[in-house]
Amino acid sequence: MMRRKIGLLCALVLILISAAAFVLGGCELTAAGMMQTTGLPAAEKSILPSTPAEYAKSENVYARLNVDGSLAGAYVVNSYAVKSAGAILDYGAYATVENLTDLSAIDQQRDEIAFRAAAGNFYYQGNMSGAELPWHFEISYTLDGKDVAAAALAGATGQLQIRIKTGRNPAGDSLFYDNYLLQVSLTLDAEHCRNISAANATIAAAGEQKQITFSVLPQSEGDLLLSADISDFAMDGISIAAVPFNMEFPLPDTAGLTGGLNDLAGGIADLDSGVQELSSGMRTLTDNAGDVAAGSRQIMDGLAELSGNSSQLTSGSAQILSALKKIDRGLSKADFSDLDDLAQLPAALRQFSAALGEMQDSLAQLQPGYGGAYAALDSAIVGLSPVGSISQEALEALLYSTAPENYNTILALIADYAAAQTIKGIYGQTQPVFAAVAEMIPGLAAGLAQLQVGLDKMASELGASLGGNDVAEQLAELSDGLAQLAANYKKFDQGLNEYIDGVGSLSANYPAFNHGLLQYLDGVASAGSGISRLAGGSAELTTATGDMPNEVDTVINELMAQYDYADFTPQSFTDSRNSHIIAVQFIMTTEPIAKSKPQMIAEPEQPQGFFDRLLALFR
């Protein structure tokens, strides 16, 4: 024990000697920052030469914030990694400065701070007045939905919300706002704070504490919200750290994405090719729609005319049949003893033949018009898509696979397709009647021609026979021939009536068919216009998406470039004239929310002298 006390006394003596030498020796710095020494020991002069030091500087800015986020005060700890000893001249608008490394003096002349530093680490603190941080902070508190002061939360119970807003301080240096990441941390007692919620924050357990950390990117304003159910509440100060944002984001491998986009672009190109083919086919269909409508109109008019004249045909045929029956009955009962009246028979037969010729001419005029119109109609109807060729599922898939702006066009196409299917179904039921009419016209004309030839031949032979001697025999043959003609014409008359009935039915139903056909053709025209617009949009889409993979890569690179701060060069917060800056960081802390403690009666503090404080260092 005695030896220890003797050692302490020796150390005190040496310290006193050094302190006295420091006080009496003094030191002086020039405005250029070069140190001149007066009365310093030779050993000290060799350690601290007057040449400029070689160093790297870091600045740690500490700020005290009020509970509402406003600035209460700030100081800077300037740290120097000195490679070679020498004089250092620093700049900063400090109210006071304090050496944190040793007892050597620091000379402050307005905003110039000069000192000497040995090799190693050197620290001094500068206390700022009127400092302006690069950020402004607004902190507000609510308890059970009502705004409260922070002091009122000490020991409180209820549902707490803390909102922290960050933004750029126009009076501060924008360099740090543009390049620094803010990390806002709150520490809560897990026993008194439950159901903690903080969007976009990291919540970590640290023993009995919960640490909640928010991040605010450079050039961004933050609106941070924390909520919790509290009881007997207390909280340490909110800590806000600001450091250069220099995180590396490796670019993602976009090969899979761009490969899929290539497939998508190829699919869009194939779709465009199909749409262009569809558009071409629709143009052909719409170009022929006028011919189809005109042909259908001709058929309808021809059927109406034929149906309107059918009564004349049936009446004339009935008259011919009645006349033949009368002739047959008359010849079978006739007395050919007096043959004077037979001379008029050839003329009557020729008139009858002429009437048949007129009927044949009428059928001959009807046949080509009806045949051409029927062929045009049949070709148009057969050219329509087969019934059920496109399923309802395929139509719905087409609807949902296209862009919303094409919905009306696709819906019109679907409606036109349904109308076309209806028309084709109706035509399928009535087509046999069309075909039967087309087939019966030649047969009727041929039958009339045969009758006409037979009557002409009969008239000629009858005329020749009346001039001969065997008239009675020829008349008997004539009677047989007329009887046969009457029997055959009865069948012809029955067929003609059936044909006229079919024409009447077809003529009655054809207007509805023609109306549906015209609606279909109108739909085709509308669909053609829509498909034309669809083809234009499809071509534009193909052009726009052709280089989509490269465009995606470019956009990704541009987005990632916004977070690339690798070229940021640190600059001094205290004064732009400071050099050799390698790091500047900010540590900002609010006052804690603490429950009041019982007042303790403090014993009066005894004044301590220099030696008392010095001895305290060794206790």
Task: Explain what you see.
Helix 4 packs antiparallel against helix 9 (548-561) and helix 5 (345-382) runs antiparallel to helix 7. The protein starts with a helix and ends with a helix. The model is unreliable at 1-49 (pLDDT under 50). With 619 residues, the chain is α+β, with helices and mostly antiparallel strands. Helices cover 52% and strands 22% of the residues. The strands form 4 sheets. Strands 6-9-4-3-19-18-13-16-15 form a 9-stranded mixed beta sheet.
Strands, helices and their partners?
Layout: H1 2-25, E1 27-29, E2 35-37, H2 42-47, E3 54-65, E4 71-84, E5 86-91, E6 94-99, E7 107-109, E8 112-117, E9 120-128, E10 135-143, E11 146-148, E12 158-168, H3 174-179, E13 180-189, E14 193-198, E15 202-206, E16 209-216, E17 222-230, E18 239-244, H4 255-333, H5 345-382, H6 392-401, H7 407-466, H8 471-545, H9 548-561, E19 581-590, H10 610-616
Helix pairs in contact: 4-5, 4-8, 4-9, 5-7, 6-7, 7-8
Distance, first to last CA: 14 Å
Which structural class best describes the helix and strand composition? alpha+beta
Low-confidence stretches: 1-49
Indicate the mean pLDDT: 78
Radius of gyration from the alpha-carbon trace, in angstroms: 57 Å
Shape: rod-shaped
Major sheet size, sense and barrel closure: 9 strands, mixed
Provide the helix percentage.
40-55%
**H/E element string?**
HEEHEEEEEEEEEEHEEEEEEHHHHHHEH
Output the strand order for the largest sheet: 6-9-4-3-19-18-13-16-15
Strand content: 15-25%
The number of distinct β-strands equals 19
Number of helices: 10
